[in-house]
């Protein structure tokens, strides 16, 4: 049983194959003689993150202190001057209690 049908053999193409090409890479430009060479940025460490967090918290605390001294302190000083005798009596009473016990 032989098959008389012709066998289709693959043909080898003689035309060049086009390979996919990526985007062109930016050319490396040398720095000008008057410019210092660029340094690569070091990777961000946990210390850098801690420093940034501390600086942000310091700004927050500074804003709170400004509010304290500009808005709260004058009213508190005015109240303390009015209540001077009461505050002196309170301190004496506390000292008396400490002396008794």
Keywords for this structure?
101 residues, mainly alpha, 2 helices, 0% strand
Question: Can you describe this structure?
Answer:
This protein has 101 residues and is mainly α. It has a domain at 46-100. Helices cover 53% and strands 0% of the residues. The chain is built from 2 helices and no strands. It has helices spanning 46-82, 84-100. The chain is elongated and about 125 Å long. The mean pLDDT is 79.
Please specify the SSE layout and strand pairing.
Blueprint: H1 46-82, H2 84-100
Shape: elongated
Give the proportion of residues in helices.
Answer: 40-55%
Extract low-pLDDT stretches.
none
According to DSSP, the number of beta strands is 0
Derived from helix and strand composition plus strand pairing, the structural class reads mainly alpha
| Sequence of secondary-structure elements | HH
Oligomer: single chain
Q: What fraction strand?
A: under 5%
The pLDDT mean sits at: 79
Number of helices: 2
Rg calculated over all Cα atoms? 42 Å
**Amino- and carboxy-terminal Cα gap:** 122 Å
The major pleated sheet works out as:
none
Brief write-up:
The chain has 101 residues and is mostly helical.
């Amino acid at each position: 049983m032989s098959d008389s049908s012709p066998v289709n053999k693959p043909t080898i193409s003689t035309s060049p194959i086009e390979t996919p090409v990526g985007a062109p890479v930016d050319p490396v430009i040398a720095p000008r003689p008057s410019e210092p060479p660029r340094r690569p940025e070091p990777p961000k460490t946990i210390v850098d993150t801690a420093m940034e967090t501390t600086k942000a918290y310091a700004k927050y605390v500074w804003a709170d202190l400004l509010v304290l001294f500009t808005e709260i302190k004058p009213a508190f000083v005015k109240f303390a001057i009015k209540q001077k005798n009461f505050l002196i009596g309170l301190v004496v009473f506390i000292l008396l209690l400490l002396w008794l016990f």
